[in-house]
Amino acid sequence: MTARLDGVTVRYGERVAVADIDLDFPVGICGLLGRNGAGKSSILKAMLGLVRPAAGRVQVLDVPADAPGTVLRERVGYMPERDAHLPRASGFEMVALLGRLSGMPRRDAWRRAHEALYLVGLEEERYRSVATYSAGMRQKAKLAAALVHDPEVLFLDEPTNGLDPAGRSEMLELIRQLGKEHGKSIVLSTHILQDVESVCDHVIVLEAGRVVVRGALADVTRSAGQEFGFEVAPVDLTLPAKFGDGVVVREHSEGRYTATLEPGVAPGCVFAAGAALGGAVRRFGQVRRSLESTFLASVAGHAAARGAAAPTVGESLGDRPSRQESDS
Amino acid sequence: MSERLGYRATHFTTIATWRRWWPLAVSEFLHLFRSKWGVAVFCVCLLPFVVRMFVLMIWFGVVEFGGLRSHLAGRAEMFLRWNPTQPHFYVEAVVQTFPGLPLLVLLTATVTAGAIARDRTTNALELLWTRGITPLGYLTAKFVGAFAVLASVTVGTPLVLWLFATLVAEDWQLLGDTVAFLPGLLLGLLAVTAAWTAICVLISSLAANSSQAIVTWCILMVGSSAVANVTAAVFRSPDMKSWASVWDAGAVVAREMAGVSTRGAPFVPATLVLGGLVLVLVIVASRRLSVRGALG
């Protein structure tokens, strides 16, 4: 387990940013998803010991987040969301200095700073002042700084902010590589669903300081009910909209259908219905929802329970295009 | 990006936590010299030193300057501040009302006022707090780095002058004359530099940005002098002028510790003013310079 939160509440004055949540962050790449103000950064800061929870207990790598000294921080790398750099320092100086502040001897910090900057693609720019870097280059410099002391766990807060498509793709590939090939546990806080879909093994969806969805990405995107997609042959075979007890069928296009089965209804009835009409059912499989639809459904459900307005697609995705549900 | 060089694990022997502020202090020391403006201010602040070095060369006959040597030697008592056998020569280079003190105020503002404020502006504090450096360690690093720059002018230059004077003097008489007051002189300058650096660093920790810190520092120096003058007039206590302002209190402490007579200037009240101000600022800054404060 990378980190564990037990009954954690984080307050900023009267405002409750995180409300009494219990969370386990499994080993691997875990996406922390939510709208702006959902509590993602507060959770990261609580795990880093930067914010003291009003209630509850936070442990990272089995060490309390508020442990005195630097026991935990030496094992954790953090990439903040906000633009952050050391004034008048070059990329190399910044990364090397942060390495030394993490406890590295000078020679190791220098060598490692060069390596980290090469890794993120800033080798040509490493002696330039960070203040003159573009937004994307600063993101890369922050990632290099998070990696310089070879931490066991990485907390990345909106790492693809300000990156162009190529830079974003490279950043995600690097995160994936760090997680999958080098065994780093990574907590990726973002509001970009596609980032989570492309690199994460697990996802935690937050809304208004509460967890609304959690689990392995494959499980979360699996349809909650028994929803199946299939094709019929011949394609002009027409299935009734309802048949049997608790089977609802929708036709998407010629010969392609979706069947929603109530609990307890066996999928075999769909095959039987096809056969009874003189045709056959093919390519029968459970519908897998996109993360976007999962996110929207769960957040809308939570908002409805609170009596608040549900998010729109634009709200949930920022500037990303919406995606269609896909059949598996 | 990842195709260029693969990620490699690294192993190193971790250095002790209490030693980690040192790299930050070194970085703070070098910060002034990373900009042309900083180097220019530093060079301007060396002007009193350059002038005194020139006077030394005239005094010991290294250069001739139209009989100025005999003129100075003949009226040594009159020109104490130009006599290398007197502490005035060394201490006034730093604390004389013009140009020593204004230059020192300028240098302090340039070196120190932005020390913490600029880190707040660039969100560097958020990076630093996650590196295992405590606010106290951070404050120590900023203080030591800035103090080293200022002390190189306020303490380093009188020391270099003294060494130069000792080496170019015709005999060892100068060494005998000056060695008695030298420790007190250096300690006094160190104390004043430390107090001013601490005040300015703490102001920087309270300010939102460098400009605000510089303005506050200048207002404190000039304003406290004006307040001291008014207060002295109101209470009919002329002494108050020389200890109730941060500016004059520093000069009083440095002169007194160097053994330079200041006509009975109140050393204790001046020390209390400087020490008290540092203490108050430490208490205020300890609340402001918190981890939570850095996160906004």
Quick check: average pLDDT of chain A?
Answer: 84
Low-confidence stretches of chain B: none
Work out the helicity level of chain B.
55-70%
First-last Cα distance of chain A: 31 Å
Largest interface: A-B, 52 and 40 residues
CATH architecture of the domain at 3-75 and 152-220 in chain A: 3-Layer(aba) Sandwich
Largest beta-sheet characterization of chain B: none
Q: What general outline of chain B do the C-alpha atoms trace?
A: globular
CATH topology value of the domain at 3-75 and 152-220 in chain A: Rossmann fold
Please write the string of helix (H) and strand (E) elements of chain B. Answer: HHHHHHHHHHHHHHH
Q: Strand percentage of chain B, roughly?
A: under 5%
* Class of secondary structure makeup of chain A: alpha+beta
Describe the model:
Chain A is an alpha+beta fold. Among the domains of chain A are: 3-75 and 152-220, P-loop containing nucleotide triphosphate hydrolases (Rossmann fold, 3-Layer(aba) Sandwich), CATH 3.40.50; 226-286, no CATH class. Chain A has helices at residues 40-48, 91-101, 106-119, 135-147, 165-180, 193-199, 217-221, 268-276, 291-306, 313-317, and strands at 3-12, 15-25, 29-34, 55-60, 63-64, 76-79, 153-157, 185-190, 202-207, 210-216, 226-233, 242-243, 247-253, 256-261, 280-288, 326-327. In chain A, the strands form three sheets. Chain A has a six-stranded mixed beta sheet, sandwiched between helices. Chain A has a six-stranded antiparallel beta sheet with strand order 12-13-14-11-15-16. Chain A has a four-stranded antiparallel beta sheet with strand order 2-1-4-5, covered by helices on one side. In chain A, a hairpin with a 3-residue loop joins strand 12 and strand 13 (247-253). In chain B, helix 3 (47-59) packs parallel to helix 9 (156-168) and helix 6 crosses helix 12. The longest helix of chain B has 25 residues, at 182-206. Chain B has one domain (17-295). Chains A and B meet through helix 2, helix 3, helix 4 and helix 5 of A and helix 1, helix 6, helix 7 and helix 15 of B.
